[in-house]
């Protein structure tokens, strides 16, 4: 990785540095290799560490780099290719082995913004199901699924234990409800502490947040807030409305 003259470049210094670093990653580094520390890189390129961090953060967002706890900044492997379905059948537990895996379920008051979407009272407890999406042995997404009691009216009659078993009970009852449709939005966000831990990321790392509202009987039956690793996933929407995560090399091969 050589030095470069940045002072005469008109575009932002961090953006030009990002381009230089990206080229170096292709030619000088192998997947999983650890980059020199920030002080060494900043000195080598004659830039402030703040400029270097901007460039590294952009490369992380693009999936070229990963920041790993106790390791440092490494060259990222190719993005994982996996289809992610939001179809109702996944809730019943009958989906493929590599699907959303229930982790826990609790009954608690939802955040005010969630309560407003669910149209429940601000102090009304709801079921909160936590699931993890695993593919090729790697956690690529974490989800919080908020379900009001009105969507699973028979659940109170079931002696459901806590943890994953109760989560599966809630999902099965939701599956029986039937849905009229769904809508969703995608936005860039930062990993919260809980999500970062489950996804093996650092808190504040870039993530893609997919919010899905499930509709039934003219109202909102459930609300999903799923957090995807931005360095691992590229989300695409097919004709069916399902989400897919595609390997970034597939796009190159198809073009």
Taken as a percent bin, the fraction of beta residues is 25-35%
Please give the alpha-carbon distance between the first and last residues.
Answer: 30 Å
Quick one: how many beta strands? Answer: 11
Strand order of the largest sheet: 4-5-6-9-8-7
What does the largest sheet look like? 6 strands, antiparallel
Q: Helix count, per DSSP?
A: 7
Radius of gyration: 21 Å
Alpha-beta classification: alpha+beta
Q: On the 0-100 scale, what is the average pLDDT?
A: 78
Proportion in helices:
25-40%
| Outline | elongated
Helix-strand pattern, N to C?
Answer: HHHEEEEHEEHEHEEEEH
Regions with pLDDT < 50 over 5+ consecutive residues? 244-255
Protein name: GntR family transcriptional regulator
Pfam families: GntR, UTRA
InterPro entries: Bact_HTH_transcr_reg, Chorismate_lyase_/UTRA_dom_sf, Tscrpt_reg_HTH_GntR, UTRA, WH-like_DNA-bd_sf, WH_DNA-bd_sf
Domain HTH gntR-type: 11-78
Structural commentary:
- The chain has 255 residues and is an alpha+beta fold.
- 28% of the residues lie in helices and 31% in strands.
- It is built from 7 helices and 11 strands.
- The protein has helices spanning 13-28, 38-45, 49-61, 112-118, 164-177, 193-198, 248-254, and strands at 65-68, 72-75, 82-84, 100-109, 125-135, 138-147, 181-190, 206-216, 219-229, 235-237, 243-245.
- It has a 6-stranded antiparallel sheet, sandwiched between helices. A 3-stranded antiparallel sheet has the order 3-11-10, with no helix packed on it.
- A hairpin with a 5-residue loop joins strand 10 (235-237) and strand 11 (243-245).
- Helix 1 crosses helix 3 and helix 2 (38-45) packs across helix 3 (49-61).
- It is elongated.
């Amino acid at each position: 990785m050589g030095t470069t003259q940045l002072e005469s470049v008109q575009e932002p210094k961090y953006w030009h540095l990002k381009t230089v670093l990206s080229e170096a990653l292709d030619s000088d580094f192998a997947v999983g290799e650890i980059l020199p520390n920030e002080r060494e890189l900043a000195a080598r390129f004659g830039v402030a560490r703040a400029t270097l961090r901007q460039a590294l953060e952009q490369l992380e967002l693009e999936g070229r780099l990963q920041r790993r706890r106790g390791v440092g900044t490494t060259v990222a492997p190719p993005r994982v290719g996996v289809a992610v379905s939001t179809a109702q059948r996944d809730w019943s537990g009958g989906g493929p082995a590599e699907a959303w895996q229930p982790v826990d379920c609790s009954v608690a008051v939802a955040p005010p913004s969630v309560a407003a979407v669910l149209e429940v009272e601000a102090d009304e407890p709801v079921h909160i199901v936590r699931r993890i999406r695993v593919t090729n042995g790697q956690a690529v997404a974490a989800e919080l699924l908020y379900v009001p009691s009105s969507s699973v009216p028979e659940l109170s009659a079931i002696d459901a234990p806590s943890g994953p078993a109760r989560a599966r009970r809630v999902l099965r009852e939701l599956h029986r409800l039937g849905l009229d449709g769904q809508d969703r939005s995608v936005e860039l966000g930062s990993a919260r502490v809980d999500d970062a831990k489950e996804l093996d990321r650092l808190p504040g790392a870039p993530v893609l947040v997919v919010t899905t509202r499930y509709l039934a009987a003219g109202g909102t039956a459930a609300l999903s807030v799923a957090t995807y690793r931005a360095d691992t996933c590229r989300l695409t929407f097919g004709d069916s409305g399902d989400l897919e995560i595609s390997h970034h090399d597939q796009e190159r091969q198809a073009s």
